[in-house]
Amino acid sequence: MYTNSIEMLEVSPRDGLQNEPEQVPTATKLALIERAIAAGSRRIEVTSFVNPKAVPQMADADDVCAGLPDRDDVTYIGLVMNMRGAERAIATGRINQLGAVCVATDTFAHKNQRQTSDGSVDMAKQIIALAKQSGLTAQATIAASFGCPFEGEVAEDRVVEMAASLAQAGPVEIALADTIGVGNPAQVASLVAKVRKIIDPLPVRLHFHNTRGTGLANVWAAIGAGASTIDASIGGLGGCPFAPGAAGNVATEDVAYMLERAGVETSLDLDALIQTNRWFADAMNKDLPAMVGKAGGFPRVAEDKPQDEREVA
Description:
The protein has helices at residues 12-16, 26-38, 61-66, 83-92, 106-113, 117-133, 156-167, 185-199, 215-224, 252-261, 270-284, 292-295, 307-312, and strands at residues 7-10, 43-49, 75-80, 97-103, 137-143, 174-178, 204-208, 229-232. By secondary structure, the protein is of the alpha/beta class. α4 runs parallel beside α6 (117-133), α7 (156-167) runs parallel beside α8 (185-199) and α8 runs parallel beside α9 (215-224). The relative contact order is 0.14.
């Protein structure tokens, strides 16, 4: 049941940067957000409100929020793990939507947020309630939906049970996250279909890491199973400080290229994303994982062609 359009949620300012060893300047994060908006992004996960001792890269969350462009057409999302983080995000006056997180296994939940899996669901529901009381919206992500770095396989029934419980709190959507990039297309299609059925009419969002090279295939499987929103990170950076082996997110420019070529509208400007990739690589002083950022789009525009090709033409 492939759709004609898909919503993209940009996560590079948060998930793309949170595991980087060198502190990224606030000005660079804000420039990245501005470039994402210019490329068509209208939902952006701008930061997370977590203990800076645990995730030093997000220590400037308040400063990032203070510098966000005034845009009525953009939803700024702040990731929060507990009520303290939710209160901080709300207090900025700049966050439009809280992103709550729960985890499908006890071991990872304890390492990620010092809770049991059930406790993380209860906390997510409290965060959703607080957001609604404060005039904001909220969504919830189930981390390690397709596999856990500590406990291995995760039963589909467990994820479906969590999604059903979260839906009772009234989030705008529920996301399934392949936190360590172990999912495969068949597994993705099966789980998305089951979660869609249990939480209908709430939409399902997917968050993939490309750790084992299956990210784009999983995106395609998720959309075929009815997912309405896909997370992606410009440049393909990303990782989790508490999940060993979690590598980069699927790259925004790679996902946009694949979908647009397949006739699925993303409302993103691929050329602008490619230019942002090159700027971002310079800003980070390293090559980025995204493939389309290296190869360019297709058909290639005249300005991108080598000089000898232009002369022949």
